[in-house]
Amino acid sequence: MTDNRLKKLRTLGKRYARATAMPHTEALNTLAMEFGFIHWKALIDAVKGDWNLSDEDLARAEEFAHQAGAKAHANAPNYDVSFIHEPAPEEGELCGHQYRIGDYLGDVVVSGKGWELRIPEAPLKAPIVEIDERHSETSPVKDTIFLAKLIEIAQDRSTRIRAQMAVDWPRRSTKADLDGVARHPLRGGDAATWHCHSCDAQMTGTQMAMNFWHCPNCGTHPLNIHAEPFDDQFPGEPVLTPDTAHRESPEVRIVEPRLTLHLNEAAVSTLIRCALLEDASSVNERLAAMRAEISLIDGEEVWITFDEMLWPEDKEPTAALAVATKLGLEVEQESSLFTEPFAWPDIGSMMSDTAEFTETLMKAYDEHGVIKR
Ligand SMILES: [Zn+2]
Fold first, then answer.
1. Which of 76-85, 101-110, 296-305, 339-348 has the lowest mean pLDDT?
2. What distance in angstroms lies between residue 150's CA and the mean position of ligand 1's atoms?
3. Which one of 258, 293, 311 terminates a domain?
4. Is the C or the N end of the chain the one with fewer CB within 10 Å?
5. Is the pLDDT of residue 209 over 60?
6. What is the distance in A from the centroid of ligand 1 to the CA of 239?
């Protein structure tokens, strides 16, 4: 029963992470803290002990995730959508180039033919431009003026969406009073100084209201903004408003967006080892396949070094050779003396059943050696 509830709680954690753009582990920890645990691991330990997750607890967690805009009840038809804003992407044209603009977990993404621009939710982080290798010479985003205009369009959208989100908020949340006191739009509570629990920055109520309760420093979700600092000993530094600070310059990357098979040593040796396991018939041969040293020389030749105690000298690894042929690679085989995984290598050369091998091996150690755990 608890297992089932725990599963539901995990799912809520996932949805909460998605709604708040928090890392998954951080979201689970936040949920656990709602139940008075210091982190998720502590909650799991308690569940293994005698702490029971009740239906009421689950309902409370649902409400908590729901407040963050997560779909708390996956199939509830009429939950409150005032905070769940997933605006539809829009099409546009700039200097004769078509583009599409949309949102992905708080970031604004603008894309065109062979390029994509991502404006991170955090207000000061560098925009990221990715250009498809095949269009790297001709892409319009290489033009700095075009790119600057695109960034401006994306910033506008992001501000507009945050403003839409705030439509139903109390007046005191979107405008601080003369003393700089503002009200948290989701959790309530009035204060003139606010603290981000994601980056520890300290903000005024005026800054929070202007920035629609996203942290002006790291961009995190309003639910990570609290009237109390995360740690009383370190109340954090006051943050600059985005007016006086600037976004970092865009980072341009040339990328290959198609699925790419890199025939490097890691991929080649994985395929060859997989084939060696297919070639292996005894326990020893499987151990040899797992432990063989496989290297790729100059992208043309595969060297396979077998443990001479485990792989029979005259055995052809036919499956491995066939894989090498498909990859267009030459094969060199050699044997060397490895440190043995277990004493009495003869045992494994006669057996193919691993359980039977384990039993025999343990008996031998029992009689002629010692077993330590
Ligand atoms: Zn922050």
1. 76-85
2. 26
3. 258
4. C
5. yes
6. 9
d(CA 48, CA 219): 36
User: Distance, CA 297 to ligand 1 centroid (Å)?
Assistant: 49
> Do residue 119 and residue 217 come from a single domain?
yes
User: What distance in angstroms lies between residue 22's CA and the mean position of ligand 1's atoms?
Assistant: 12
* DSSP-derived 3-state class of residue 271: helix
99 in any annotated domain: yes
Q: Is residue 78 part of a domain?
A: no
**CA-based end-to-end distance of the chain:** 35
**CA–centroid distance, residue 352 to ligand 1 (Å):** 58
In a domain, 246, yes or no: yes
Q: Are residues 251 and 288 in the same domain?
A: no
Q: Are residues 62 and 14 in the same domain?
A: yes
Task: Give 349's contacts (C-beta < 8 A, 6+ positions apart).
Answer: 282, 283, 284, 310, 312
Range(s) of the domain holding residue 36: 2-67
Distance 73 CA to ligand 1 centre (A): 29
Mean pLDDT calculated for residue range 287-308 = 96
Q: How far is the CA of 218 from the centre of ligand 1 (A)?
A: 4
Angle ∠(95,98,103) on CA atoms, nearest 5: 115
Each residue's pLDDT tens digit, 332-358 = 999 999 988 999 999 999 999 999 999
Q: Find the 64 Cα to ligand 1 centroid distance in Å.
A: 20
- Res 5 pLDDT > 70: yes
Which residue, of 12, 40, 67, is where some domain finishes?
67
Q: How many helices (H) and strands (E) does the chain have?
A: 12, 14
Q: What's the CA-to-centroid distance between 207 and ligand 1, angstroms?
A: 12
8 Å CB contact between 282 and 349: yes
CA of 118 to the centre of ligand 1 (A): 20
Regarding whether 284 and 250 lie in a shared domain, the answer is no
Cα(11) to ligand 1 centroid in Å equals: 25
The pTM of the full predicted model, rounded to 2 decimals, is: 0.54
User: Given this model, what pLDDT does residue 81 score?
Assistant: 38
pLDDT reported for residue 76: 39
Which residue type occupies 207?
A: Q
CA of 198 to the centre of ligand 1 (A): 5
